[in-house]
Amino acid sequence: MASPETLITAPSDPARDFARLSSRRLLVLAGIAMILAGMFFGDIFAIFILHQNASRVGLSLASAANAALAGSVDGVGAGFAATGSFLENRGTKVDTHVHLIGFGYLALMLAILQPWVRLSEQVKRRAAWLFISGAVLLPIGVFLIHYIGLAYSPLRAIGWASIFADLGGLMLLIATAVYLLSLRSNRGTFNTAPLLPSATAAGRYLFAGGLLLVMAGLIHGAFYAGVDLYRHEAADYNILSRMSLAAAAQDHAGVDAALDDYGQLQGDKAVKVAAHAHVIEFGFLAMLLAFLQPYVQLGNIWRKRWAGVLLFGSLLLPVCVLMELRFGLVAGGLADFGGLLVIMALLAMWIGILRYTGQLDATGGEIQ
Amino acid sequence: MSRAKTVLILGGMALGILGMAYGVWYAVFAEHQALDGIGASLAQSFTAAAQRNPGAADHAMANYREAKYAYDRQVDVHSHWLGLSMLLIIVGLSADGVGYSEKLKSLLAWCLLAGAFLFPSGVLMQTWSHGTLPRMVAIAASGLVIAALGFTALGFLRRETA
Questions:
Q1: A181 vs A195: CA distance, rounded Å
Q2: At what angle are helices A252-292 and A300-322 packed, to 10 degrees?
Q3: Which residues of chain A neighbour B58 with C-beta distances below 8 Å?
Q4: Is A193 left (phi over 0), alpha (psi -120 to 50) or beta?
Q5: Under a CB-based contact definition with an 8 Å cutoff, are residues A121 and A22 in contact?
Q6: How far apart are CA A262 and CA B28, in angstroms?
């Protein structure tokens, strides 16, 4: 049963706005599913691959530096081939995680905008399917880049996986452009906003909390750019340069010290960038979910609880990521727990929306 | 219709299209070449070190620094244009909840849009020039975004408490 709050704040014509296979329903359900899939992937990547991969990158770089020390040109080549492969493996997995979640956010935003899109439902639905297909194709293509490489590719530098990933990006671009153009021709009717975040208590918490998280992330980003960015870039060059020159001078101690410094620098960079990105992304997520609360068919108290869980997890993860260098695995474990809280809250809200759609279908558009 | 809402939603969508178009262009025409350049210059530097040629090692490392500097910024431009476009749309969707006059809301919306466009543009300009102007553009525009968003948040609070 829908709560009284739902009855007051739900759109005036739910049968039309959220009908079976309507563009809005497709985008909401697929958008949350993409975010969930991206977060699961990110957690699995963080737990089972990220740290192991980082240590392999460090070892292969050390092997290249030691080969240079020993005067072995072939050894240097082999070391860097391995480093490049590990970096590509890591980079494509990070990109898969980031793009899946980013497209999920975009899908939710387009879902919220659907009442203002002046197109027939059939065209809106086709654009939604095009968007969803592109949003699935691109991350899968990116994920496969490392495994497929340039096999059977007609191009010198770009493999089939990249080509399909780019095709996915083009599909997304077209679908988003279709929605944008129809919004442009709809200038007079933006006042029909059916889903203000202030419509529910959980929505208010999520919107205010999300805005605070985004502000915190922006301020942290500005601080990072002002204090750390140029220092990190200079240190990256200086350390690698020291390593290379020490190898040329056959200075074992110099190479070892530079390798150690390089590992520390990469760790410092990674945690600061990850904290900045995650706090802003979780802020966006909370703000977007604020608009969808009228569709979450759970009791008011549970909507508020899940909103609280999501906000707590959204703060815990970036704070603990920042503390990883100082507190190691304890902070890392807490950060993963924060991510798990966000996933659980999102899953609960998704189930609430599924309940809403189920009741809508069962009653032919009348929410009881 | 609220002008602030129009500026933020349509401006945000346009910025999103710009960010995606830039991303597709970058992935097809620039990213692989940039990554190849970074890897190759690093490998050249260590190969030169193995051949006991510190001058060539240093030269290759300088190439690495340039390539890495440009690559990091080009990726940042893509992600920041898209992230800020989403922020504009979300704030635009809730612009009715900001407790300011239409004129002030419109001014804040234009500030947010200008900052969101100029901040990554300043970062992109840094790949063409290492001078202070691109840095100043990026710093000023990011400050504009933070200030406008802060005022908008206060506007939400004002509406809630009114």
A1: 22
A2: 170
A3: 241, 244-245
A4: beta
A5: yes
A6: 31
Alpha-carbon distances, residue A345 vs A276, A308, B121 (angstroms): 21, 9, 36
Task: Single out the residue of A31, A42, A44, A39 nearest to residue A136, CA to CA.
Answer: A31
Burial of B132 (0-12, 13-18, 19+ CB in 10 A): exposed
The residue of B2, B45, B96 whose CB has the most chain A CBs within 10 angstroms, and thus the best one to mutate to test that interface, is B45
- Nearest chain A Cα distance for residue B118, angstroms: 15
By Cβ distance, the residue of B6, B96, B149 closest to A218 is B149
Tokens of A48: 């089972």
| Pair of tokens at residue A251 | 């200075």
Burial of A165 (0-12, 13-18, 19+ CB in 10 A): buried
Domains, in order of start, for chain A: 7-194 (no CATH), 196-368 (1.20.120)
Quote the Cα angle for A180-A182-A183, to 5°.
65
A221 CB within 8 Å of a chain B CB = yes
Residue A351: enclosing H or E segment and its boundaries? helix A329-362
Q: Which of A268, A263, A332 is nearest to A55 (CA)?
A: A263
Taking an 8 Å cut-off on Cβ atoms, the answer to whether A249 and B54 are in contact is yes
> Which of A106, A157, A211 is closest, CB to CB, to B33?
A157
Mutate to test the interface with A, among B6, B44, B46, B127 (most CBs of A within 10 A): B46
Helix or strand holding residue A325 (H, E):
helix A324-327
pLDDT 10s digit of each residue in chain A, 368 long?
Answer: 344 333 333 344 656 677 777 898 999 999 999 999 999 888 888 777 777 777 788 888 888 888 888 888 888 888 888 877 887 888 888 889 999 999 999 999 899 888 888 888 899 999 999 999 999 999 999 999 888 878 787 877 778 998 999 999 999 989 988 988 887 666 555 554 455 666 788 988 899 899 899 999 999 998 998 889 989 999 998 998 888 888 888 888 888 898 889 888 988 998 999 999 999 999 999 999 998 898 899 999 999 999 999 999 999 999 999 998 888 889 988 998 999 999 999 999 999 999 998 888 887 755 54
Burial class (CB in 10 A: 0-12, 13-18, 19+), A217: buried
Of A34, A129, A133, the residue nearest A350 (C-alpha): A34
A109 to chain B, any CB pair closer than 8 A? The answer is yes
Q: What is the C-alpha to C-alpha distance for residues A86 and A67, in angstroms, rounded to an integer?
A: 18
Is B156 in contact with A64 (Cβ distance < 8 A)? no
Give me B105's structure tokens.
């809301």
Q: ipTM of the assembly?
A: 0.85
A240 has a chain B CB within 8 A of its CB = yes
A247 touches chain B (CB under 8 A): yes
How far is the CA of B143 from the CAs of B24, B95, B113, in angstroms?
A: 28, 21, 13
Asked if A199 and A290 count as a contact pair (C-beta separation under 8 A), the reply is no
